[in-house]
From TrEMBL, chains A, B:
This is TetR family transcriptional regulator. It holds the Pfam family TetR_C_13. Residues 28-47 bind DNA. It comes from Azospirillum melinis. SUPFAM superfamilies: Homeodomain-like (SSF46689), Tetracyclin repressor-like, C-terminal domain (SSF48498). Residues 5-65 form the HTH tetR-type domain.
Length: 192, 192
DNA sequence: GACAGGCTCCCTACTAGTTGGTAGGTTTGG
DNA sequence: CCAAACCTACCAACTAGTAGGGAGCCTGTC
């Protein structure tokens, strides 16, 4: 296993931070070039086209998300605490200004103008996340820890939507604390 | 009052439908030119710069929204029905494929790369909408028609976030019915 | 040990097309 | 006649992407 940061990794990391600011059409190979210190032609060597770059970027993002969620599931037994940890992760992201937006939430809005391969990855992320949340809610309800207002799936979709909407609101208001202010009451209400 | 569709109106209408697809950076003067049947230079005559165009576009959108909401408030006395009408409006937009996204919700995600003047308009729209929802919830609670889970303001922000998030989910899943599936249970739960 | 071949990575140089925007002249309607 | 509206003809900067070459590095072979 190779943990040293390769050029391709640098490019992906940089592209992610750029895409998180304003989506697919808000950055160019030239922008990456300036930050990473590489010529645009060399970026094409690693990622022949922009859609390749973003497809890989989102796929990698999804893998990290999956890994993070399964690790979180292992470390934290209680379903309510798992939700808390999930939302807490994003709250910390906003506080740090590290990556104050979900890549896929941003790209979802742009789906009509996205290359099909990228759109498919975004779609898959939404399903993945909704599935995970559904599982957590099901277990929480079975254990009597959570009080659902509908089916686990329906509540999961609502939770997902509120989370993404809270990101939009935080951006719109220019207030990082808005995310927590919106999502925290969600948890209090769902706790049995 | 001049109800005939002027050139500037056509440009704005066209730009709106383009911007709704993928945000600020997803369309160009050339795109508008092709649809409206006018040269790009002539668009600059009506809107000197792109940020002017989008600022006016969002301001007009906000006016329409304000007018729509106040009209809705006049026509429908019951607060719960007002919420139903508001969400129903968007549900119909998705069904028609007419304008299946809120201009400001889309632009909110891109705020870091938006011209400041446009960002200010988007911010104002969020506040305007949150204010309206807060008012509806307050009245609904006072009349015993709605059962709030927090303050009216907090519930309004959550409702707003869920609505916007549901738009993202509908796009991500490529399923227009997803919007209603997510938002309808919201109303059932809030109804006293 | 030398050395050729091939591979990865990155470069310079270039392309065609698009971007938002300008200068200045012409048409059109009151 | 005047002004708004629209045009042609530009522009410089930027877009993603290509062609081709050179430096370094491993690997197989004599």
């Amino acid at each position: 296993m190779n943990t040293q940061s390769t050029r391709a990794d640098n490019i992906l990391r940089c592209a992610r931070s750029l895409i998180v600011r304003g989506g697919y059409n808000s950055f160019s190979y030239a922008d990456i070039s300036k930050v990473v210190g590489i010529r645009t032609a060399s970026i094409h060597h690693h990622f022949p086209s922009k859609s390749d770059l973003v497809r890989v970027l989102v796929a990698q993002y999804r893998e990290e998300a999956a890994a993070g969620l399964s690790q979180l599931e292992q470390a934290i037994p209680d379903p309510l605490d798992q939700l808390r940890a999930y939302l807490g992760y994003w709250e910390r992201c906003f506080a740090d200004m590290a990556a104050p937006f979900c890549v896929c939430a941003l790209l979802a809005g742009e789906i009509p103008v996205l290359p099909e391969e990228v759109a498919a990855e975004v779609r898959a992320h939404f399903r993945q996340l909704a599935d995970w949340l559904t599982g957590v809610l099901e277990r929480g309800a079975a254990q009597g820890r959570l009080r659902l207002s509908g089916t686990a799936r329906a509540d999961a979709e609502m939770l997902l939507a509120t989370t993404h909407g809270a990101m939009l609101s935080a951006r719109a208001y220019g207030d990082a604390t808005a995310f927590g202010a919106i999502t925290r009451p969600l948890l209090e209400r769902i706790a049995a």
